[in-house]
Amino acid sequence: MREQIKQYLAEIDAFSAKTKDELEQFRIRFSGKKGVLNDLFAEFKNVAAEERKEMGVLLNDLKNKAQQKIDALRENFEAEESAKGDDLDLSLPVNFDFQGSRHPLMIIRNRMIEIFSRIGFTVAEGPEIEDDWHNFSALNFAPEHPARDMQDTFFIEENPDIILRTHTSSVQVRVMEKTSPPIRMIFPGRVYRNEAISARAHCFFHQIEGLYVDKNVSFADLRQTMLYFAKEMFSADTRIRLRPSYFPFTEPSAEMDISCNLCGGKGCSFCKYTGWVEILGCGMVNPNVLKNCGIDPEVYSGFAFGMGVERITNLVFNVKDLRMFSENDVRFLQQFESAWQ
Ligand code: DAH
Known about the structure:
The chain is an alpha+beta fold.
């Protein structure tokens, strides 16, 4: 019996459990009803009187060692589980006050969509990863046009035909290729340019493009649509000014200014004392673009416009550094939803 107890002690000493199941097997083996300890205590009754004292001490020691091992291993498993968070206290109070807020760019984008939808423009989107045809060629960009230059456009080295779109004008092409006029749509989306990041430029930003193609669409329609938009977006007394410009996909083309919404056109440091701030490019869709998209320019005409959502947002909310829109600082981002009506 003495030898047996020695062996069991060595076994207990060497034992460790990888799983709770293994520990339970161990407990049953030693402390279970038909376990080692009960067997030994039963045998103990037959131990000769002169050995009883010594055997009693050894047996009790074995019993204690087995129990200590079981307790220690059990504690280990419990500690592991609580580290995993299984004993999360769900009764602790929670701060229910936190509410998300819409990003300022999305507030303005939604507002722009709403303004145009009131006069019948619907919304479509196109892919951010584009090909040369939709971003440039179909829009009448000459092969050597500087906008294709590596400095502005993010090209994929292995396949220069795949680019990140530099403007949402690409969606004009995608829509005209599969829709026959009348078309009255706006295309919001993110665009990418290889520019050094500063307060006034970023390698990605957002635009809203507009397209109206039908029979007898005139420059007067373009002007009136833009005036309506400016008044709705800024204020009823906003005036607009169209300056001749050049874009390959419109002819004639114009850049549009609004009367400065900070000084009302009197002149301030914001508008550099001109009374005007530029907000978008526009023009009559170039007949070549219509042709490229399978629309007969002898039958149809159209106008298009494109503007930066960051620019409009800066004007509405008087934000001076557009990097703040992508820094994800909630102290900045949370200020706008409640400020807007
Ligand atoms: N795509 C131009 C840009 O990113 C903006 C633009 C100008 C769009 C004139 C138009 C337009 O549709 O007619 O700078």
